[in-house]
Design goal:
Largest sheet: 9 strands, mixed
Radius of gyration: 34 Å
Keywords: Methyltransferase, Multifunctional enzyme, Transferase
Low-confidence stretches: 1-8, 429-448
CATH topology of the largest domain: Rossmann fold
Domain Methyltransferase: 51-172
InterPro entries: Lys/N-term_MeTrsfase_sf (IPR051419), Methyltranfer_dom (IPR025714), SAM-dependent_MTases_sf (IPR029063)
GO molecular function, one term: methyltransferase activity
CATH class of the largest domain: Alpha Beta
Helix content: 25-40%
Protein name: eEF1A lysine and N-terminal methyltransferase
Amino acid sequence: MALLPRSPAEFGSARYWERFFRQCGQRPFEWYGAFPQLCPVLKKYVRPCDKVLVVGCGNSELSEQMYDVGMCEDIVNIDISDAVIREMQERSRGRRPNMSYLLMDVLQMDFSDGHFQVVLDKGTLDAILTDEEEATLGKVDRMFAEVSRVLQIGGRYLCVSLAQEHVLKKAVEYFSQEGWVVRVHQVASSGDEQQFVLPIFVYVMTKFKKIPGSAPQILEICTEEQDKPMRVESTEQLVATVRDRQHYALLCSQLSKTPCKEQVSLDLCDRESGKPRYTLHVIDSPAVKPSRDNHFAIFIIPQGRETEWLFGTEEGRKQLAASAGFRRLLAVALHREQHYEHMAGVQAELSAKVMELAPPGLPARHQVPFLSVGGDIGVRTVRHRASSALSGDYVVEDVRGDGTCCFRRLIFLCNRNVVQSEARLLAPAALPDQKKRRKGKKKPSPAEQPPAIDKSYLCCEHHKAMVAGLCLLGCPNSLPAPLAVLVVGLGGGSLPLFVHDYFSQAHVAVVEIDPSMLEVATRWFGFSQGARMRVHISDGLDYVAKLAAEVLPPAAPAQYDAVMFDVDSKDLTVGMSCPPPAFVEKPFLQKVKTILKPEGVFVLNLVCRDAQLKESVLATLQEVFPLLYARRIEGEVNEILFCQPSPEGRQDPAELGARAQELERALRQPGRPWDSSYTLADMLHAVKIL
C-alpha cells in the first residue's frame, strides 16, 4: 500500500515516481495488462520499420518484448524518473542496441517535429489526467500538443487506458477536432485473474493534416468480440459504448463472486448491426441444494414464446429456474430481427460468452448444459412489418406455441415483450377451400397455403373474462335484442369478432384511433365488417363524448347495453399501460355512464403496476359506478373491472357462475366451434365485489 500516492495529483509528480520505483525495486511493474494481451492490437499499428516513442515507460517490459519478438527495434523510451531510466538502461545494455532510454518530460520533449511514426503511451495519460481541474487539463493539452508535434502525418498515437469517462472524452474530443481518425480497441482479456476488474482499451489516434473548415469526425470502436471497426456518430456515443463494456465487466466480476439477489438482464448485440441479438436473464436459486452437476445451465427460450408468463416475467423465470433445479439459470431470449439457424448454432455462438456469467464455485472444465422446450429454438415467421404514425413500428408474426398449435401475434415494437393481439391459426389442411380442390389441380406447398384464423378461440385471458362479463346483463333468454355493444380499441379484432360471432343478436360498434390497425385486423386476423359490425376511426374520448352529448332522455335514451375498453397507452412513463389515464378520469367516466343503459355493464381492462395510481382509479370508478366487480387475471397484471350504473343489480359471484354456465350452453350452438378449454364460469369464479 506504500506504493500508492496520498492523492491522485501525485501521479503527475516526478518525486512520487522516484520514490515509487525505488520501493518497487527490480521487479517489472505492469499497470495495464501484459504484452500477450496487448500484442494483437499493437501489431496492427506498429511496423518493424517504424520509429517508436514510448512515453512514461516506467520499468514495464513492454518495449523490451516488442523489441525481442521483432515487432519493432527503433524504440526510444522516456520517463521523468531518473531512477527508472538508469535501471532500464542497465537492463537493456548490450542486448538491445537500437533501443534507448532518456530522462525526459512528455510535456516538453527535445525531439524534432515529425520524428516518429508511433507514440506509445501505457497508462501515462491516465496518470496525468487524474481530475478535470484547469491546471490538470492544461498539462494534458501540452502533452497532446507535444505528441502531435513529434508524430509524422499518418503517424499513430497508441494510448493504453482504463478509459475513465473524462479521460476518453478528453482524448477523443482533442484529436478528432484536430482532424485525426480516432479508433478505440477493447483489449481481449487473458482469462487469468485480472489486476483490474475494468477492461483495458487502446485508443488509436491517426494523424491527418487538418483540413480548414468543418471536416466530418471519424470515430470507430472495435470491441473484444469483433475485429471489424464499428463507426459511431459522436463522442457521446463512443463514450456510451465504452461505458456499456465497463458495466458488463463489473457485472461479470460481481456475478463470479456472489449470487445475485435480484434477476439481472442484459443484451448481447449483433456484431454487424449493433442491434440486440440475445437477451440474457440471470436467475439464481439459492434454495436449490448444491450438487456436483447443478451449478449452472443455459435455457434457450423458444422464439415467439418470450412474451409468455413463464419466460417474460421475473416471477415466471424464477419458477422456471426452480423447476430446472440449477443454482444459476441463464434464460436466453432470441430477438425477432435476427436470424438463427438451429440450436447447435445458437449454442456455438453463446458458449464462450455465457461462461463470463458463470456462478462462483463452478468447477474447472465443467460441462454446462443447454436446455430448451422440445430441444429446439422454436419457430417465428414475420408476416408483416410496418410503421404507423400513432402506434409506431409494429410486426405481425406467426409463432409456434407449446405443442403443435401456431399463433399469429401483433407486437408494437415500442413494447416488444407485450402481445398486443393474438389469434390461433388453423392448420392449412383444415381450410375448406383445400378440401374442395378439383382432382388433378396442383396442390400448393405449405408456404403457399395461408393459414386461417380460428375465430372460436380467444387467446387472451383478459378477453375471455371481458366476454364472461356479459353475464351481468341477464340470462340467455333475457339478453337484450338487439344487444348493443361498444368496443373501444380494435387491435387484431379478436374481442369484437368473438362477440359478433357468438352473440347472434349483438350489434357491435368498434372505435379505433389508428386506421393502420383496421388494415392489420382485416388483412391478418380475419376481421370483417358487416351489418352488425362497424368500425369508426376516431379517438375514443371524442367518440364517447359525442355520443353522450346526443343522449337526451326520454326522446334520445342511452343506447348501449355493454361498453368495453381494451385500449393501450402509448405513454410508457406512466405506471398504467391500459387504458390511457384520460379514459379513467371522472368527467369522462360520467360520459361513459351516460351512454350506458341503466341495467348495462361497463367492462374495463386495467393494467396498472403503480399501486397508488390503481387505488385512485378504483376510487374514481366507484364514485361514478355504484356497483363494481373485479376479476384478476392469474399470472398477469391485467384486472378486468365490471361496472354497473345501479347498485340494485348486485349479484352474488356464485349466482354469476350459474348464469355463466347457462349462457355458455346457449352460445354453444350445433355446428359452431367452441374452444373446449374455455368456460365462462371459470372466468367468473374468482370475481369479487369491490
